């Protein structure tokens, strides 16, 4: 995946215009079934929402006439080396990633996907030239959409304890008491799912989620006349407050562990564009609303707009654009790189586009690479040692033997990376050590996968293996 710099003949020359070099997109899933009954899944509406978002970002960054085309990205036929896509193994998030990619790189059609074999046979790719794009499995967030509160999916002990502290805070106890009558009044609408003992602010999100899903998807909802717009608004507002306080607390940063690890992944993704001289162009990650809210708090986005206290809607996206204002004939130095943050609440389309917001409480929507990495570095957690230390975990991946082995492996990769112009990438040596360790891990995993393929083996999940030996629905 080496890239020897941009050629002037193929790189759009930017004079007063901006040249986008790389993009990182973090997206929530589309509409899904409610959490309360369990076993959530993506709905047809959710599939359409996420596909529409993917189509929008194609028209913004990829298509030949894209409004803000990423330099040298493949227009119609996907070039896998230019993309990195990941999602947790989840019945909602993983399918959402697939749907998004269908909009991003749609089928190429029978003409392009048809080839003639040596024996004269003409073979056409299935599904009109459907483009297969691999999706990596994210390490955290597995089955998160089946959990009432997403912190459990983090496996971070101190984050879970910190979130639980909210349930004994004065703010929580006050709302628990003042809203009790309101929640009990919902009983006729939810009594098949929640008992009266469960109808309280403690379950603010799952109660809101059940009624919100019914309001969107259930045409036979028997209590539709009782679920007024005012009631739904109050349910949403209380759920916003409940979930934000579980996701972030300024005095207990570990509570926002999801946002801290996401921040490191964002810097890593954009840094990969830099160290590859633009070979890797687009990173896409899917995750749950808790990661959004944790990041909103850590990046002080609530100062930019109070709406960031709320739960992002289905198919919401955070976007980080790496660009330059200077004319370019080769990949620019880091001094000429800038980062812009954008957010859109809900499905993105041509009439409802992402909006730029300033990060870290600053007044600028356009940060230098150095200022961006400095701001993210104040709260990001990007290596296993730091994660284990912050979380207080000492077993599993945080056992002393595994951490010692990881540290020894990471030390060999801590050299400050540079681009083709010889410029530093703007990251500290420690941050580059994290990135180097992650790249090393990716290479090892790639070699293991190659060995599996060449040896004729295949990976089977424990769940699937169990289903082969016992009947299980």
UniProtKB/TrEMBL annotation:
**Which Pfam families does this chain map to?**
His_Phos_2
Q: Which InterPro entries match?
A: His_Pase_clade-2, His_PPase_superfam, Histidine_acid_phosphatase
Q: Which UniProt keywords apply?
A: Membrane, Signal, Transmembrane, Transmembrane helix
Q: Does the keyword Membrane apply?
A: yes
Q: Which residues form the signal peptide?
A: 1-17
**Where do the TM regions start and end?**
433-454
Q: Which SUPFAM superfamilies match?
A: Phosphoglycerate mutase-like (SSF53254)
Query: Has UniProt tagged this entry with the keyword Signal?
Result: yes
Q: Name one GO molecular function term.
A: phosphatase activity
Family per similarity comment: Belongs to the histidine acid phosphatase family.
- Protein name, as recorded: Histidine acid phosphatase
Organism, scientific name: Gomphillus americanus
């Amino acid at each position: 995946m080496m890239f020897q710099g941009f050629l002037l003949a193929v790189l759009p020359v930017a004079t007063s215009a901006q040249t986008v070099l790389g993009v990182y997109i973090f997206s929530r899933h589309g509409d899904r079934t409610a959490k309360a009954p369990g076993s959530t899944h993506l709905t047809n509406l959710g599939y359409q929402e996420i596909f529409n978002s993917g189509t929008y970002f194609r028209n913004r960054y990829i298509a030949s006439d894209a409004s803000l085309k990423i330099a040298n990205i493949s227009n119609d036929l996907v070039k896998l080396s230019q993309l990195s896509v990941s999602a947790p193994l989840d019945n909602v998030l993983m399918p959402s990633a697939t749907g998004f990619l269908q909009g991003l790189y749609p089928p190429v059609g029978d003409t392009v996907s048809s080839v003639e074999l040596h024996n004269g046979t003409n073979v056409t790719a299935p599904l009109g030239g459907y483009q297969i794009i691999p999706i990596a499995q994210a390490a955290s967030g597995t089955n998160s959409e089946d959990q009432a509160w997403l912190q459990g999916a983090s496996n971070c002990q101190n984050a879970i304890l910190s979130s639980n502290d909210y349930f004994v805070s004065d703010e929580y106890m006050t709302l628990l008491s003042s809203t009790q009558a309101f929640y009990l009044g919902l009983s006729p609408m939810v009594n098949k799912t929640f008992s009266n003992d469960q109808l309280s602010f403690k379950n603010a999100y799952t109660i809101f989620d059940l009624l919100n899903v019914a309001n969107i998807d259930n045409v036979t909802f028997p209590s539709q006349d009782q679920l007024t717009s005012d009631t739904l608004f109050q349910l949403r507002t209380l759920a916003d407050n409940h979930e934000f306080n579980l996701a972030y607390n300024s005095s207990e940063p570990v509570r926002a562990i999801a946002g801290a690890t996401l921040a490191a992944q964002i810097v890593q993704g954009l840094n990969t564009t830099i160290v590859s001289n633009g070979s890797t162009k687009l990173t896409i990650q899917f995750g749950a609303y808790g990661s959004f809210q944790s990041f909103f708090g850590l990046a002080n986005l609530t100062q930019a707009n109070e709406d960031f206290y709320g739960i992002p809607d289905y198919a919401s996206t955070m976007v980080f654009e790496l660009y330059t204002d200077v004319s370019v004939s080769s990949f620019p130095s880091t001094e000429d790189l800038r980062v812009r943050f954008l957010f859109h609440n809900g499905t993105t389309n041509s009439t409802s586009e992402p909006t730029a917001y300033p990060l870290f409480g600053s007044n600028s929507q356009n940060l230098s690479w150095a200022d961006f990495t400095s701001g993210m570095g104040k709260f990001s957690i990007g290596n296993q040692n730091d994660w284990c230390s912050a979380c207080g975990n000492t077993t599993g991946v945080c056992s002393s033997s595994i951490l010692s082995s990881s540290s020894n492996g990471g030390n060999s990769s801590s050299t400050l990376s540079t681009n083709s112009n010889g410029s530093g990438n703007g990251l500290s040596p420690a941050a580059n050590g994290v990135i180097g360790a992650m790249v090393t891990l990716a290479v090892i995993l790639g070699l293991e996968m190659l060995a599996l393929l060449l040896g004729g083996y295949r990976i089977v999940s424990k769940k699937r293996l169990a289903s082969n030996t016992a009947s299980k629905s």
